[in-house]
């Protein structure tokens, strides 16, 4: 066997280590996170409480300009997910509200619990796939595709999603352009928006 084959075999074995050697690896948030996730919390200190996440309880306030609230059960908030390749989020949308176009490092499935939501994604050929989802409907957003949810019903909407990564990330396109440190002149160049439009967007996010 040449060295490359040996290296590939060892890489594959290394990526299977968690499955073979440990039942679970609850993340130790006091240590730095690496590309593979967190180091494991001392298993003698792990209890049932580590495996239960209660952050989805109750009503969620909706205060942003888009009219949504997303509660993320990713591994930094729910360390028992560490190494297991799965996570969840709760989506609350006020009447007329939207989760703005965004992406993750993973795929995502959504299930609608309350209300009526237009959900969709846009592929790399700019083709949009979108549909009005009713209670109980499920839709998949394939890995890394830009996607969105809009409440088109007459009541607040509620949905849950699951993602096939413990730390799938959440990158919101509009805030990434206008809510951070990107200079307005660059935002203008890379979007073709006018100076006035960029200024209006930055004002919405308090960065003008
Ligand atoms: C989401 O809801 C929680 C709980 O009500 C609240 O603390 C948080 O500020 C809300 N976030 C947004 C963006 O409205």
UniProtKB/TrEMBL annotation:
<keyword id="KW-0052">Apoplast</keyword>
<keyword id="KW-0732">Signal</keyword>
<dbReference type="InterPro" id="IPR001929">
    <property type="entry name" value="Germin"/>
</dbReference>
<dbReference type="GO" id="GO:0030145">
    <property type="term" value="F:manganese ion binding"/>
</dbReference>
<feature type="binding site">
    <location>
        <position position="104"/>
    </location>
    <ligand>
        <name>Mn(2+)</name>
    </ligand>
</feature>
<feature type="binding site">
    <location>
        <position position="108"/>
    </location>
    <ligand>
        <name>Mn(2+)</name>
    </ligand>
</feature>
<comment type="similarity">
    <text>Belongs to the germin family.</text>
</comment>
<feature type="signal peptide">
    <location>
        <begin position="1"/>
        <end position="19"/>
    </location>
</feature>
<feature type="disulfide bond">
    <location>
        <begin position="25"/>
        <end position="40"/>
    </location>
</feature>
<dbReference type="InterPro" id="IPR006045">
    <property type="entry name" value="Cupin_1"/>
</dbReference>
<feature type="domain" description="Cupin type-1">
    <location>
        <begin position="54"/>
        <end position="199"/>
    </location>
</feature>
<feature type="binding site">
    <location>
        <position position="108"/>
    </location>
    <ligand>
        <name>oxalate</name>
    </ligand>
</feature>
<keyword id="KW-0464">Manganese</keyword>
<feature type="binding site">
    <location>
        <position position="102"/>
    </location>
    <ligand>
        <name>Mn(2+)</name>
    </ligand>
</feature>
<dbReference type="Pfam" id="PF00190">
    <property type="entry name" value="Cupin_1"/>
</dbReference>
<dbReference type="InterPro" id="IPR014710">
    <property type="entry name" value="RmlC-like_jellyroll"/>
</dbReference>
<dbReference type="InterPro" id="IPR011051">
    <property type="entry name" value="RmlC_Cupin_sf"/>
</dbReference>
<dbReference type="GO" id="GO:0048046">
    <property type="term" value="C:apoplast"/>
</dbReference>
<keyword id="KW-0964">Secreted</keyword>
<feature type="binding site">
    <location>
        <position position="104"/>
    </location>
    <ligand>
        <name>oxalate</name>
    </ligand>
</feature>
<keyword id="KW-1015">Disulfide bond</keyword>
<protein>
    <recommendedName>
        <fullName>Germin-like protein</fullName>
    </recommendedName>
</protein>
<keyword id="KW-0479">Metal-binding</keyword>
<feature type="binding site">
    <location>
        <position position="147"/>
    </location>
    <ligand>
        <name>Mn(2+)</name>
    </ligand>
</feature>
